[in-house]
Amino acid sequence: MPELNLTSAPAHLRHGSSIGQPLTRRDGVLKVKGQATYAADNHPPGTLFAVMAVSSIAHGRVTSLDVAAARRHPGVVDVMTPDHKPQLAIDPEIKTNPFVFRMEVLQSNEVRYANQPIAVVIAETLEAATEGAVLLAPRYETLPALVGLDAGESFVPPVVGVGNPTENHRGDVEAGLASADKQIDAIYETPAQYHNAMEPHAIVAHWDGDSVQIDMPTQGLMLSLARVAELFGIGHDKIHIRSPFLGGGFGSKGLMAGPPVLGLMAAKLVGKPVKLVLRREQMYGPVGHRAPTRQRLRIGADVEGRLTALDHHARTVSSTFDDFYEPAADASHTLYAAPAIRTSHDAVRVNTGTPLFMRAPGEATGSIALESAIDEMAWACGMDPLAFRLKNYAEVEPITGKPFSSKALRACYDQGAARFGWSKRPLQPRQMRDDAGLLVGWGMGTATFPALMFQAQARAVIRRDGTGVMEIGAHDMGQGAWTALAQIAADELGLDIDSVEFKAGTSDLPDAGIAGGSAHTATAGAAIHSAGAATIVKLADLATSDERSPLFGAGNAGVIARDGRLIRRDDESRSESYAEILARAGVAEVEARGTGAPNPAAMEEYAMHAHGAVFAEVKVDPELGQIRVTSMVGAFAAGRIVNPHLVKSQLFGGMIWGMSFALHEEAITDRRSGRIMNANLGEYHIPVNADVPPLDVITVEEHDPHVNALGIKGVGEIGITGSAGAVANAVWHATGVRVRRFPIRIEELLTPG
Amino acid sequence: MKQFDYVRPATVAEAVAAAAQPGATYLAAGTNLLDLMKGGVSRPVRLVDVTHLDGLDQIEHLTDGSVRIGALVSNADLAHDAEFAKSYPAIAEALLSGASAQLRNAATVGGNLLQRTRCAYFYDTASRCNRREAGTGCDARDGENRTHAVLGWSENCIATNPSDFCVPLVALDAVVEIEGKGGRREIALDELHRLPGNTPERESALEPGDLIVAVRLPAAARGFAAHARYLKVRERTSYAFAIVSAAAALRIENGKIAEARLALGGVAAKPWRARAAEDVLRGVAPTAHAFQEAAWRALTDAKPSGDNAYKIELARRIVVRALTLAAAGTPARIPALPASPFASTSGAIHA
After folding, report:
1. Which residue of A has its CA nearest to B38?
2. What's the ipTM?
3. What is the pTM of this model?
């Protein structure tokens, strides 16, 4: 993005090696000054406003819309309905690949969930479009809504998550349980949760004939582009998407949802640029959420406190019309060395928008149940929760028997426990009070998240003036891609970060893959790594094959790139600047492309996961039941840390999200209507500043030669796992009350005075 | 949104005349009204903006020892007025426990008195709600109602009044000054909000055009300054409405309670003055036993309206705690976490 004026690196930073430096985010000043252009900030001349009318029923069909009344309203330009809309090139119900989810784009009058778009009003002002949507006064034929985890007959889905087997097992779980000295059998429930990114889903769509300019926040530029291309029957070269900044995505902006498609359709219908921004409550339906779960854990342990069996079953829901199954039980595959493990899932269908990836999908829901159950098992064995976890430390991945590519979890336990002061924890619950008489409890949880890699490309250039360019259609959701990926680019090109023009965030750049699965830095970083290296190779060819160069005869492997120079490896006194090499060769620039991709051989051989240990202190009012987290320490091992400053922020965010999972977040669904009754940030609680205690993050040294060339594992989602369970376990330790339904509510803790 | 007239009267008389028209409503800071309008819950045809009226933004200490708070004084300005906070510490604490700093800066005293319930079914226009639309029914009654009323509710409505501010006000016998078509009148705050009965749509004693111009606290209210607290249990540390709250104020003479004041929030459609409990406390020593007795009396008539039986027990405990805190004495400074059970937590940062 040439118009981006990113902040220069602070002068105190050591140049020469950017990876590992705690740079502050380079887009920070832009954001503070309000100069970072988010999608809805764009306003081409003549832009009209589109507002969705959404269904107030969860199941049935729309029988009438008062289109005439809406059209009569001053300022209303058009009303898009199932009877009046541009035709799509393909049926949106067709799943053209596993990453396509069904969407509601006015293809019928059918209503499958509350808040489903049923019409779009396009007007000269936002106010007119908003009122037009009200004036449609929809009437419905209402059918009974399917709501909740017991809504109907359960079934075993073919897969969970993204193609994971629904059931897994290793060893004989029933025999393991039968042989156990101690057993627990407990059921945990987690509620529906919504992503609630600060920035609502938004699109500004501007057609020019068959070409379209799109401003839209997306975690997957190329997936979005491909979906737009197939829905509208146009070539990829006709579509340009800009997404330089996202105000959070958390999985809800990864794949094209219905509302932005409606924005594109509306713009086509009226032949003018159209802006469509979701209202907060409209984000509770068509753009995904985390499905509720009910999880049963049966665990057995022998007299020594060694696990004999671990059985984890998860019930979840999907929509009535598509399939996404929260893979909650899979959380039990990797952490604890039970000789017998079984995980399984079943599901019911309910009238909801299709659940989707949300911040550690499966790992987060599964983790709070597993970590609670492990805590219960430790207590049943009379063991300290950390000692119990160490006793059952997995030296190889329990479900597969594969070695880990790296696993510094033991160091996480040690360093986290030491920083927290865990050794002073009394075994019995309800033993600690503070000076004011509040109950104090300490809990812990183990964090884990897979080290994933997707596919990405990048293009690198070294220019005649000695500067570099790195192009990759990467996504900055707030996590700091503008900074961290530029740091990698600088090192790969052997330049200071300020000498590299880093381009990202638009669809005309090489495909960076999806910013999801905590894999963006690893995947895009690997592509940048290989593009940079390939460019240096070309530059080295120019120098080492030219007898006028001091590097003549050094050979490709014989030079290193540093500070804008190629330097002979065996004789650092012989070097030449990039500018000199290109000038003498008479070329304007050298460029090369590179690819990042998973390594199937390494994946076959190794289990690859990031790990961590989270320790939490809570205080609970003994009579009133109100809970406050007062301290959290997280120690995480996630391979190479590209930018410690940004990584710490990511982990803080994850830990806060975990605490939110344990204590706050819950979408309240009316069990009769299927409507969500708290679809706003006043009543859908997330932690406010006063809820967030001092947080302490330790990044534990970990070298992983197998995950990818840079040794990066990713830190986006792991902070949620472990943290949620740590807080829940701390509440038990404070009160002696084991709450298994989340979020933990005050009434659960109103024990007899 | 629905188009509406916006008028900005120059005088109170003009305001009353403009607002007496059908479909008109007053606009002050709009911290509640604008949300209601965006959600289609309230669809006025005319907004009468009173924020430019002169003389309604003063805190006046009157010669008879009472204080008169203009309706346009902001929640933040009132709470941070040093003399006011010293004289009426439970009110300042209640104000600072409400909403967020940004909302408190905008919200006004008069507007706060008239904020609407947070019942989700009132806000959800697809639900039946007798309060929003008379005679349609109450979907909260068999709905998601764990935070709903346990006192004074009817089959027609189980909503609660969400105000923190009103709870200590009603405990301290606040009086509301009203300008209406018939001129100026005043009523006790306790009479302002109505219990639902068969007419939940009639939320207050105000008539069309009535404008709250001030709230007055009688001289006697000052007598509780040494032993007055507000306590609020909520589901996060800040920016959440009360599950249950209580204002407790005591006048202690020679080791005995000369006079007690007690009111509960979050339990009924109005701030709930617990006079029977006050009677129990008159003339007795401030002991745990006495406070337990008062708590039982305060909740004698309570009954669950849904999945909220726990609120009755919680309310009893909050009453005991609030009275205990009040008896211990008003702290020299309002705690960093006002009204919170964690108010005493060392190192607490401001909410």
Report:
1. A130
2. 0.96
3. 0.97
